[in-house]
Amino acid sequence: MALAVLALVAALLLGAPENAAALGRGLRQECKKNGDRCSLYAEGDCCSGMMCTMPLECSSRGSRSECFPECRKQTLSKLNKVDYPSSSGKTPALEAGQRSRPAVVVMQEWWGVNEAIKATALHIAEQGYRVLIPDLYRGRVALQVMEAIGLASDLNWTRGIDDVVHAVTYLRKTGAKRVAIIGFCQGGAMAFCGAQFAGVNAALPFYGIPNNISGCNPLRIPANVPIQAHFGTNDNSFPVSRIQPLALSMQQAGVNIKLNLYEGLPHAFFNALTPEGRRLLAGNNPNYKQPNETLVTQSFSRMTNFLRLHIRDNK
Ligand SMILES: *[C@@H]1O[C@H](CO)[C@@H](O)[C@H](O)[C@H]1NC(C)=O
Ligand SMILES: *[C@@H]1O[C@H](CO)[C@@H](O)[C@H](O)[C@H]1NC(C)=O
Ligand SMILES: *[C@@H]1O[C@H](CO)[C@@H](O)[C@H](O)[C@H]1NC(C)=O
């Protein structure tokens, strides 16, 4: 066992870039030399002792620019607990980043507010945003799929949407001039709802679509809310056969949506960006393979470009 790990590490150090699947979970990877591009799947220190985190934003501007992962020092490491006022009294949430920064509401997957969504939110905050994660499950977090199914089916969407609407109100009242909503899986569906009801400046749904008991209708999203949607073509939960016709009908209804499809990526692919997320993606599956890093990175780059365009460059 130890020998096998050593062999893997040796293979990595000697450079076997095509053998991406060999990067097992939790395996440390060293940079071959200072200044190397960080692999998002690496968990070790690299590049002159800095932590590998998310891609930096690119210096060029505009919707056509893309950026690539680099090393940077992670400065934010902590989310603060807050309660903000909502129709149900108070909604618990986690928050990070300066209050005057443009803000991003980050919506949980069906698991609840777990370590993976917290890590994702911190990486978004690292790009220069204030982030807020409303806790729709009020402290409950699923560890197993069956628990997640239970919590998700218990979710009262009326209250959930109210939590989102008041999250945006809270952020604006406490200093944020512009607010976006981003969400994943169940939170992706909630991002569509937020775009419809919460008066956000932009929405970024990842692989989630509201069902017809949610009370949301993506066709009714106001035309002045730009939407950037991200879906993988290997998503069995929210397949292309559902999102593509929906995006088309939305466009025909005057909604400003751009659908980004990622060839071969599975459901929940954005989780591949963080160690916690990768643990979640792998589950107990011994045959787990990391999703295509180039494409996962591209989705992150598009996200940061879109946020900058709509909640930072404008004012
Ligand atoms: C869902 O939440 C709304 C708003 O808080 C509440 O009025 C309604 O009774 C709830 N529905 C159920 C089934 O609990
Ligand atoms: C809502 O869902 C139900 C049950 O899945 C389905 O029968 C109905 O046609 C759906 N309604 C709309 C408007 O899509
Ligand atoms: C990952 O996606 C990129 C862009 O589509 C593609 O060029 C590359 O071959 C893919 N890599 C693997 C290992 O499939």
Automatic annotation (TrEMBL):
Signal peptide: 1-22
SUPFAM superfamilies documented for this protein: alpha/beta-Hydrolases
Keyword Nuclease: no
One GO MF term: hydrolase activity
Positions of the Dienelactone hydrolase domain: 100-308
UniProt-listed Gene3D superfamilies: alpha/beta hydrolase (3.40.50.1820)
Domain of life where this protein originates: Eukaryota
InterPro entries xrefs: AB_hydrolase_fold, Dienelactn_hydro, Dienelactone_hydrolase-like
Pfam families: DLH
Keywords from the named record: Signal
Protein name as annotated: Protein usf
Lineage: Eukaryota, Viridiplantae, Chlorophyta, core chlorophytes, Chlorophyceae
